[in-house]
Amino acid sequence: MIELKFPDGSLRSFEDGATGRAVAASISPSLEKKALLAKLDGALLDLDRPLPHGGAIEIVTRDSPEALEVIRHDTAHVLAEAVQELFPGTQVTIGPNVEDGFYYDFARDEPFSLEDLPKIEARMREIVRRDEKITREVWDRAEAIAHFRGAGEAYKAEIIEDLPEDDVITVYRQGDWRDLCRGPHLPSTRSIGQGFKLTKLAGAYWRGDQRNAQLQRIYGTAWASEADLEAYLKRLEEAEKRDHRKLGAAMDLFHIQEEGRGMIFWHPKGWTLYRTLQAYVRRRLEAEGYQEVKTPQVLDRSLWERSGHWQKFGANMFVCETAEGEALAVKPMNCPGHVQIFNHGQRSYRELPIRLAEFDGLHRYESSGSLMGLLRVRGMAQDDAHIFCREDQIEAESKAFVELLQLVYRELEVELHSVKLALRPDLRFGTDEVWDIAEAKLERAANAAGVTVEKLPGEGAFYGPKLEFHLRDAIGRTWQCGTLQLDYVLPERLDASYIAEDGQKHRPVMLHRAILGTLERFLGVLIEHHAGAFPLWLAPVQAVVATITSDADDFALTAAARLKAAGLRVETDLRNEKIGYKVREHSLAKVPVIAAVGRREAEEGKVALRRLGSTEQKIVSLEEAIEALVEEARAPDLR
Predict the structure, then answer these.
(1) What are phi and psi of 559, to 5 degrees?
(2) Residue 374, number of CB atoms within 10 A of its CB
(3) Active site residues
């Protein structure tokens, strides 16, 4: 007999070999009908697999996030079965689930086309309707290798050959189709439902290595219901409209070209947006006691080796050698430079905390295939700062940072969605004892700041744990931007010290922190969040004075000059075009306010104000317009 503990705390005994399905049936017929998986001591199991031992059990139904992950993985298997039915001779390789969906990589001489996707999707729906039973089988290693090689599945055979000798080899049968997989899986293909869609084709290298054979990847999305799929597709449609690359072109903000991959050519309007955001953050930091510094763009390799970045991050650094034999690297981050400023001269405990901020440019090598507009770049700046403090100051400094981040996010009209605590990675510097202390202190600091954290094992930086701050945009997407990292390692490696109250040298603790993160990436998020329609204080062009008739040209120029003199960013449009055409054009460029002037407005000293997205206009005196717009255009921290 095995003893199982249920979520309500009750205990029940079951016969050895009982399955999750049997447990569900013992509770109620309706639960058995809804059950998709069993979860034993936190591990998901096939519903019809005998439970290997007693423990804490849960029955997983369709509305569980864990079920959705398995639905996506099963849909990848159905995709592979459909492809091999339609295109005999195609080899399957790997097919994991990913965010919002899944993919499967195929080896096939003839390329797939977009026209193939509807056919494949139709066959997938047929396989789901067949209600093919999905069963787990344990195979002998040699037998499995021979089977897949005999079936022409060289990639699957290679995967098995590379598995550790003591690994259990499991094959899942889906009707008559079989695939190597660890599982778990749903009871049958019908359990997947019809909430899926194939989305795109891409190329991929076997095992991600460009030296290996190139494969063809088919992507798809899968959801627990067709309603969820429809909602997702609508979000995609909205995201397409908000794409910062399209809006960046329409608003004349920036461009990227082949000669500067991953580097941004900021146009005047885009650079105005950039500087406005940067100036706002700079004022917020200055108000909180940060001191801005500037460190060299290029530093000797020896410093990066001492900091540990060369060993951990060297492949992502741009390096060069001089005629004198110097090995130099363009800085990918500011922290070693800030330690050098801290180390310049003797520090006293009375000076701490010292908060050093820098907005200077950073450069990191990212593969060309991973670059994506403003969201993934090679040249960037951050609202970067490092706090050097005593151990007894960690909690207060962390709390103050979280409060500042929350304030900035509110003023930028974005929502703080969640905070995650990233814990020690496999490759790291520092002893386990140091990591134990750092992780515990950062979690306590987060709790003191009033935030609940989700733990992410293995996701910390190589020198310390970190808090990740995820924001949610207007269409529900989440983005990780802010970060707070607690570091005992770098001060030790770079010999940072201060004279403590006891007259002895002590190591400071270093807090690496950013609110926006990479400014380029944050601006990409912000463009999409606002769909280009920025609040007035942030808009690159805040108003356009547009003439209805040429009789109003002189007054339009006077009005624009008055608005500019009041500190507003204003353009004029005196073209011989109809006002409707001008309004449409400036609306596409997301100009918040259009001040239309005709003969009557010129004679009366008035303007007709029209807001972006509205068909209504309000006629006011020029003085009233200036007063109202100046107040509205004031940055949040200056109001």
Answers:
(1) -60, -45
(2) 25
(3) 335, 364, 382, 384, 386, 466, 512
